[in-house]
Specification:
The chain is mainly beta and 362 residues long. The chain contains one helix and 23 strands.
């Protein structure tokens, strides 16, 4: 039988047309909802989507509210549960990217590619909103920003923005945060006093938005949903690039990998380095962006080591990780362990509060 050739238009220098990772909000390794979020920047639900909530208190969730007939199952939602003062401080989301994945855009040369950003958005509050793109090159930061409007309350709307290439400054060819997109939903004058620039200029946060920003966070009625986020080379928005779930998950696991979460889950094989020191090796499913840090659940008898016809329950990975690389690490503990050096066995999580996560987020 004939094999159909994969169309070249479906791929770019980073093997995917869409620069945005998890733009359909389908991967949420951290969980589907985080409540009481206020004044705390970070990743909460949908992978690769970083929140800033400096006014009001918010529930951040992976929502099933999506634009009808577009093929999406999830959106990213920010819902204000305790009002602050809109435009007194920042409410925004960010999508962060490594510069080494963007060399094909040829920024910093006369051949710099234009980009097209498209996304679906919904809010209770109509008015003007802004999106800014920043190049955090170590030589010179650059920024470009654009306005768009939410025209109808509580209605999904698709927005498309074309961004010129920057001939003046390229991206660092490295694995650190180099290119970041900001969606601003509320912002103080430190982000709005300079006015937007639709062409790339030297960086100033004052150029992210204009002072007519509608502003969310001043009412418990305020919310915003976003999904179908795509950023691609060229001046035309193509249909959203849906990826198989295994491919999408693997792209997210480069930055954040949940190894174990909850009771009854396998952790690893392990062995006693000494009578009281347990060592276990973990291999990551994909190469992580950088050598990760360990985040784990701590509590009485959260984990169990089965060995030599008996078992030890222990509380945490008290010694942390060792010999860590981007593809594997050792977990170590001397918490409540007592046996004979050289004994080997199986390690499991035995509490609902037990979890083991490896983090190399931008």
């Amino acid at each position: 039988m004939a094999i159909t050739k994969i169309p070249a238009a479906g791929f770019t220098g980073n093997n995917f047309r869409n620069i945005i990772i998890n733009g359909d909000m389908s991967i949420a390794q951290r969980g589907t909802s985080a409540t009481g979020v206020t004044g705390d920047d970070g990743y909460y639900t949908c992978d690769r989507w970083y929140s800033q909530t400096d006014t009001g208190t918010w529930t951040i969730s992976q929502s099933t509210d999506v634009p009808s007939g577009q093929g999406f199952s999830n959106s990213f939602k920010m819902d204000c549960t305790s009002a602050g003062t809109s435009n007194a401080d920042e409410v925004m989301i960010r999508s962060k990217h490594e510069g080494q994945n963007l060399q094909y855009l040829k920024y910093g040369t006369s051949s710099a590619e234009s980009l097209t950003l498209s996304f679906w958005i919904k809010s209770n509050k109509t008015g003007n909103y802004y999106v800014a793109l920043a190049n955090f090159n170590t030589t010179q930061y650059r920024v470009v920003s654009f306005g768009y409007s939410i025209d109808s309350a509580n209605t999904w709307e698709k927005k498309t923005i074309t961004i010129p290439g920057d001939t003046s400054q390229g991206f660092d060819n490295s694995n650190v945060e180099n290119f970041t997109l900001f969606w601003l939903f509320s912002a103080a004058s430190s982000f709005t006093s300079g006015g937007v620039s639709n062409t790339w200029i030297d960086y100033s946060a004052t150029r992210f938005a204009n002072s007519d920003l509608a502003g969310l966070g001043g009412s418990t009625s305020d919310y915003v949903n976003i999904t179908g986020v795509q950023l691609e080379a060229g001046t035309t928005a193509s249909d959203f690039e849906f990826l198989p779930v295994d491919v999408n998950l693997a792209r997210c696991q480069r930055y954040y990998y949940v190894h174990t979460n909850g009771s009854g889950q396998h952790v690893s094989l392990g062995a006693l380095y000494s009578a009281t020191h347990l060592v276990a090796e973990v291999s990551f499913p994909v190469e992580m962006r950088s050598v990760p840090s360990l985040i784990h659940g701590v509590g009485t008898n959260y984990y169990r080591f089965y060995r030599n016809g008996t078992s030890d329950d222990f509380n945490n990975w008290s010694e942390g990780i060792s010999r860590a690389t981007k593809i594997s690490t050792n977990l170590e503990t001397n918490s409540n362990i007592s046996g004979t050096a050289g004994q080997a066995g199986i390690i499991e999580a035995i509490s609902s509060g037990a979890f083991i996560v490896f983090n190399s987020e931008l």
